[in-house]
Amino acid sequence: MNYADLFRVTLPETALEVAALLVLVVDLGFLRKAALKTRAAVAALLGVAGCGAALWALRLQGNDWSTLSFESFGPALLVTGTYVKAAQTGILVLTALTLLLLIDSDFTRHVGEFVVVVLMAASGGLLVAGAQDLLVIFVGLELLSIGLYIMTAFAKSSSKSAEAAMKYYLFGGMSAAFLLFGFSYFYGLTGSTNLSEIQFVIAESGPSPLFYVAWILVVAGLGFKVAAVPFHLWAPDTYEGAPAPAAAFIASVSKVASFTLLLTILQTWMMYQGQFGYPKYLVDKILIHSDQTWFPLATMLLVVAAASMIVGNLAALAQVSVRRLLAYSAIAHAGYILLGVAVYKMHTGNETHIFETLLPVVISEKAVLYYVLTYGLTTIGAFGVVSVVERATGSDRLDAFLGLHKRNPLLAAVLLVLFLSLAGIPPLVGFWAKFNLFAAVLGVSAGPVPFALVALAVALSAVSLYYYLQVLKRAYVMPAVDESPIKAHPVTLAVLVAIAAAVVVLGCFPALLQGWIESFYPPM
Fold first, then answer.
1. Residue 257 to residue 131: CA distance in whole angstroms
2. Label partner for 73 (CA 20 to 30 A): which of 67, 81, 92, 157?
3. Contact assessment for residue 297 and residue 268, using Cβ atoms and an 8 Å cutoff
4. pLDDT band at 413; cut points 50, 70, 90
5. Backbone φ, ψ for residue 320 (5° rounding)
6. What are the structural domain ranges in the chain?
7. What is the pTM assigned to this prediction?
8. CA dist., res. 181 & res. 215, Å (int)
9. Got the DSSP string for 288-339?
10. Rounded CA gap, 280 and 174, in Å?
11. 131: which strand partners?
């Protein structure tokens, strides 16, 4: 890849960085003595404009299918197209929504710096989503992670924020060490940092014990990023102590970027795309070694997925803090998504066309992307509602939501829509996200194990409905101790209503989002 191609691929990240510089200049140079609300509004709107510019830059790239040709995967550092471009679009939209929620926040006077950190973390997420090289992956993850640590600690007057940031940073440092160790072993085994070249060397020669050690280390590092069990211990404290916009960003943008990276690694490694142009005997040899190598890896992820679903849903039952409830809910949702990431079509040895192997995996890609984007949208709205209630009552405990339908009927309606969607109740978009994902798992991987995991996920979704209803019961059924109105900033309320409306519309017309995702794929 030459420098012109590299600049073209990184144009969205460049737009975010220019916007971050502009926010600093305006906030520190022209608005230092302005009111906090004014500075927050201007910084947030400039950040949203930066996200819009990055979306425009992403659109300029077009659906360049040449970046998806199998010959280009070898030397590529970054790619665009298919699920990568769709995920990057989702990251930018979710970042813009997070910034709009900042307008009514008062947890810091350094709003310009906070917006800059958000934009830089978002640029790291874009790098992670499109990375095809271990070094680029690590740089992108660190840029994203450092931004998340800083955002978590931004509420300087809150001891919970400082404690959450310290725990997040320490766990993050350990996960980075595991990830870097795993990457170094991959490089030592193959002599390359490119994902496709690593896959070719391992698939051609067969796996070694050190390869599995490296993969375990990588799973530990990436499991931390998506808050999967047993790497989830940071999530409850971070979701509870971080400022609401930071928690929303962690729960949405970080999840989209991390799961896109997992898709990239698994889809690059579980099906060898370099079959084109190789003699048949070499392709057969690679396919045999691929099944021997990648099936244990998929099994490992399925175990992590099952543990995440069980621990996340059961632990959420005991929570009295809505933020911690959303944290354990996020752990459970990570388990659901991992089911779709880890599904794997075994080679039967009689495929006559490459698309017979690719098509089921592409269906799984689309289902995972549909799920993670809709979950990110819904959870931003959920944290927005929690932040409004928390600012009015001084608490995020369940009892803070007592009588919400009388204190702010519109806010209570938004909470109802978002929590029922997270529980997977039709006709909301959360139902279709789970339905598509579970159908993809059963369609790609036939057998008793996938069926049992999907049955477990459905049963635990019923459990999740119970703890979501605990919040809604207080909002709609139980009497309020204090019936004074809860007021929300007009922009915040408009954003939350728009998110709830999108959840309803996308649920009633699921083909809208499905068609949009498919538009990034070439015809098969």
1. 10
2. 92
3. no
4. very high
5. -110, -10
6. 3-518
7. 0.91
8. 10
9. HHHHHHHHHHHHHHHHHHHHHHHHHHHHHTT--BHHHHHHHHHHHHHHHHHH
10. 44
11. 78
